[in-house]
Design a protein that fits this description.
Order of helices and strands: HEEEHEHEHEHEHEH
Number of domains: 1
Distance between the termini: 55 Å
Helix content: 25-40%
Number of helices: 7
CATH superfamily: Alpha/Beta hydrolase fold, catalytic domain
CATH architecture: 3-Layer(aba) Sandwich
Number of strands: 8
Oligomer: single chain
Strand content: 15-25%
Structural class: alpha/beta
Largest sheet: 8 strands, mixed
CATH topology: Rossmann fold
Amino acid sequence: MTMHATARYAVHYGRDLRFAGRDLPRPRVVHHETRHGRVRSFEHAAPDGDHTGPAYVHLHGGAWLMRHPRMDEWWCRYVAATAGVRVVNVDFRTGPYVAYPVAQHQAHDVAAAVAERAPVAVGGFSSGGGMAASVCLQARDLGSFVPRLQVLGVPALDLASDLPAGAGMISPSLRALVRRVYFPDPATRAEPYASPVLAPDLSGLPPAVVMTAERDTLRRDGDTYARRLREAGVEVSHDVTPGADHYFLTEDPVRARTTMAMAADRIRDALVDTALSEDRAQE
């Protein structure tokens, strides 16, 4: 509960990564109806002010214990400015006030609502990366919408397995806390929407950008998911930041420029360039 309540004061990740988008207006608040009640999002318009075009739906990190979407506002602003799309930063509910699968369902329902009016890509960091993968699996299984791209940064994709041996920012004690608070039922931890890397079938999923870090204890999750997606016939761009732990971008801001630009380029290609090509084909 302390982590939940103090996140806005304690989390300063990304301060040195505000490479673009500082001059964009404040995001507007939009509310969406979901299976688990109304959820708000912070919506950044595209640089031209458009609130109706292609959208990147972002899911923040925080181990399902921090409800603080603005921890990733630096990234949302960067994507809006660099990829030229609007960005929907979802304020889904987290533990200890809800447990799995509430956040996963809310994230899917918001993305599906946005996709009713425009093409959508989905992404996130850490637990948010795991949520983005879950949203894509849910969308495929439900036939609710077709994401154009999934962007998975240092994703947490396996809540059923113990972390690999070795020191790292994501520790066994944190994993134990996340399981106890947000995944209290051990029987659900291996479900595909909780642990996407354990899904028996990954075919039919959208192209993926998977970003992992060499020393991150979650690296195994992302590396395995990238390999399994390729084996299932899914297009994958897999980037590994050398020498970095879980905060892979802040540990090397110089390399981060290249990594972030690559992800933004893929988002723009999937949403803007593809949409333009489709419009020309229809003409």
